[in-house]
């Protein structure tokens, strides 16, 4: 683990209880589309961005604890949860714009971003597009690093995915899938660690509109070969921005080796591995997750962005990946991913 430099003593905070009413969904219309979100607490803003097919409900059990010291905003991304699901642009860049616009409508100028899976890619894209509004990055099993991704997601990106997803809603299919999930857990497979959460994502696609939005989102980031966009080639721009990576060592969706690759590419980043956890470490060990987030936000100063520093980083460019570094297997993997990144960059 490498800590972010210049860590400060943990500040004294005033804890406040969170009422049940604060956890209920709220709505705001932005650009004519209804955006659902949860907002609770007081203090420095903390934005929780869920993964593909998921919603703000994935954070529900954590929000009360985090909201004791933060203003927590957990949106349902467009096409997800209770937000509208139009035929629209579901790229990570569009999602970053949507998060910016919702925060602006809520009167929040800057925040610490916590992104899970696809939400991690959105958080990284937000930091790239709007660095002046990003105080810290906390990336949880984030997409957008290496090409590898669970084969099921690659399969769903292919033609015919609508039919495949719709068959999961047929009578009796839920029971069969449930039996398969229990078998995977019984056999102690990595996929078995994530299967219950992934099954919940299937339940969140009850109609054609939801399935269409899911597939459009997936195809924006995954094809038959794997993940198609990355921020790996621009991770050097996070220099000076406190960044923490949280990953389960049994992640069946985005392999844990991506955590080490991102950690290598992000100067001064902090890496925390959840042993025995899958793709949802904040579900596996919520107490540790909350503790890490609270410690990280309390002991680091928000990023001090400047146009001059940003320009210097861009002009200098991404540091070489081999000069002065030992020829280890991990470094060779990082270099390979960097080369692939040039083909998969998203602006």
TrEMBL record:
Organism the protein comes from: Streptomyces coacervatus
Pfam families the UniProt entry points to: Abhydrolase_1
Sorted UniProt keywords: Hydrolase
Domain of life assignment: Bacteria
Entry annotated with the keyword Acetylation: no
Protein's UniProt name: Alpha/beta hydrolase
Keyword Zinc: no
PANTHER family linked to this entry: AB HYDROLASE SUPERFAMILY PROTEIN YCLE (PTHR43798:SF31), MONOACYLGLYCEROL LIPASE (PTHR43798)
Basic and acidic residues biased stretches: 327-347
Signal peptide feature range: none
GO MF annotation list: hydrolase activity
Residue numbers spanned by region Disordered: 316-347
InterPro entries per UniProt: AB_hydrolase_1 (IPR000073), AB_hydrolase_fold (IPR029058), AB_hydrolase_sf (IPR050266)
